[in-house]
Design a protein that fits this description.
With 465 residues, the protein is of the alpha/beta class. The protein folds into three domains: 247 residues, Aspartate Aminotransferase, domain 2, CATH 3.40.640; 95 residues, Aspartate Aminotransferase, domain 1, CATH 3.90.1150; 68 residues, Ornithine Decarboxylase, Chain A, domain 4. 34% of the residues lie in helices and 14% in strands. The strands form five sheets. Strands 2-10-9-8-7-3-4 form a seven-stranded mixed β-sheet, with helices on both faces. The protein has a four-stranded antiparallel β-sheet with strand order 11-12-15-14. Helix 3 runs parallel beside helix 9, helix 4 packs across helix 5 and helix 10 runs parallel beside helix 12. It is globular. The relative contact order is 0.14. It binds pyridoxal-5'-phosphate.
């Protein structure tokens, strides 16, 4: 096995994965220059002149203040523990122990972990399922209206709501209407826009709309999933009307490292300043139109690509050739292309912000090789999971994991309460959450998922004893 260090050497394989800077090619120019400086010269502690995200003084504080003003919000904080750390801090600022929060079924697992940390009950809202692709689509306002009528009763106060927009696959939600609806119910709204940083910097009136323009109270952007920053970098934007500043600050202090990397903080600052520049707008428009042309070209040549609202997420419909996305991913690796997200019915590539010459040819070659491998009989669709209504677990995730449990074959879990999370990663969207009672339908659906990706969905499950 090569050492980690050996694996970090330059690599000729095509990077169609996150982070989206494409192995450095699309990093902001000032960050590239910094990284060419004497190695390690930038690895500094929170010196007084640098400070940190939670300090009042120093360069980080002044950058955060300037960027918040430029974005038209009250505050922002850089994050060096991914979107994860900031989403968790946001959720725990909205909800006290003993509260509940509304979470869409396609919420990232870090939000379940936040509920676990804070003794918060998740109230799950259904999200449309795309059976031909085998994954969640995006929320619409009519669906949310129906999910909240009657108003869910978790037996404790519901203190906030989280939305995902856009999804990993680039599907965008009716974000303005969703936020207005939740605000009308008196709830603060945090939007996980990890995959949609670029939306907040696109030309005015362009669609899809960023949750920031749609009035969200908290928005988290991943600066490496949808902007060209270094891995682990993220930013939290805050409007103070519905979420108290002091609570949010305390929550961040609980969850963030006391030794943030100066390099990662500089990446946050430089990436956000780069996104505000004119250079960025034209670079983004170029990448976007190249991606649209690529998809048109491939479709004309018979390649099946599922539609997405984000042209930079290319979802190859491998199931239509009779090949799972997991097997297709192996084939891509053998052909020197690293994809991002393999799933039972498709394989998603993140085109990112680096320029890729000859990509159409390589993807066409891959599609033809898959067609030979697949034998032409399409895989069967994945039926909708039995999660089409609002649901409340019987126990909070932390309670369920503290109780005595046993491990049973999935088939024998009907009517038992889950004591563990089942969550393929990527994409990190839980299929089962600790505290949920497993109905017969749910058990059958999970078994069918186990058959499709046994490495990700276990056949033996921890349930309460
Ligand atoms: C929708 C969504 N939110 C949050 C996260 C967590 O982001 P990070 O890995 O940067 O902590 C992910 C990661 O895959 C994600 O897909």
């Amino acid at each position: 096995m090569p050492s980690l260090l050996e694996l970090l050497r330059p690599d000729r394989r095509l990077a169609m994965h996150l982070p989206v800077h494409g192995r450095g090619a699309a990093l902001p120019p000032r960050l590239r220059r910094l990284l060419r400086q004497s190695p390690g010269s930038w690895d500094l502690p929170e010196l007084p002149e640098i400070g940190g995200p939670l300090e009042r003084q120093g360069a980080v504080a002044s950058s955060q203040a300037q960027l918040a003003e430029a974005m038209g919000v009250d505050h922002c904080w850089f994050g060096v523990n991914g979107a994860t750390g900031l989403l968790q801090a946001g959720l725990l600022a909205m909800a006290q122990p003993g509260d509940a929060v509304l979470l869409p079924r396609n919420a990232h697992r870090c939000l379940i972990a936040a509920c676990e940390l804070g003794g918060v009950m998740p109230v799950f809202l259904p999200v449309p399922f795309l059976a031909d692709r085998g994954h969640a689509g995006s929320m619409n306002a009519e669906g949310l209206r129906q999910s909240l009528d009657p108003w869910p009763d978790p037996g404790r106060p519901i203190s906030g709501a989280v939305l995902v927009h856009p999804t990993y696959h680039g599907y965008s939600a009716e974000i303005r209407e969703l936020i207005e609806l939740l605000h009308a119910k008196g709830l603060p709204v945090m939007v996980d826009e990890a995959h949609g940083t670029h939306l907040a910097f696109a030309a005015k009136r362009s669609r899809p709309l960023s949750a920031l323009a749609a009035g969200a109270d908290l928005v988290v952007h991943s600066l490496h999933k949808s902007a060209p920053g270094l891995a682990q970098t993220a930013v939290l934007w805050h409007r103070a009307q519905r979420v108290d500043h002091a609570r949010l600050h305390r929550s961040l202090a609980r969850l963030q490292t006391t030794s943030p990397s100066a390099l990662l903080l500089a990446s946050c600052e430089t990436t956000l300043n780069w996104l505000f520049s004119h250079h960025w707008s034209s670079l983004y428009e170029d990448r976007r139109s190249e991606a649209i042309n690529l998809v048109d070209d491939l479709r004309r040549r018979g390649v099946h690509i599922h539609a997405s609202d984000d042209p930079l997420r290319l979802i190859l419909a491998t199931g239509e050739l009779g090949v799972s996305g997991l097997d297709a991913d192996d084939l891509c690796m053998r052909q020197g292309v690293i994809a991002e997200l393999p799933e039972p019915l498709c394989l998603t590539f993140c085109l990112g912000f680096a320029r890729h010459r000859g990509l159409a040819k390589r993807l066409l070659r891959i599609w033809r090789a898959l067609a030979l491998e697949g034998g032409g009989v399409p895989l069967t669709q994945i039926p909708d999971p039995p999660l089409q209504s609002t649901s409340i677990p019987e126990l909070t995730p932390d309670e369920a994991q503290r109780r005595a449990h046993c491990i049973r074959p999935l088939a024998q879990c009907v009517d038992h309460i889950a004591a563990e999370l089942i969550c393929p990663y990527p994409p990190g969207v839980p299929l089962l959450v600790p505290g949920e009672r497993i109905s017969a339908d749910r058990c059958r659906w999970l078994q069918s998922q186990h058959q499709r990706w046994p490495d990700q969905v276990p056949g033996m499950v921890k349930v309460l004893a």
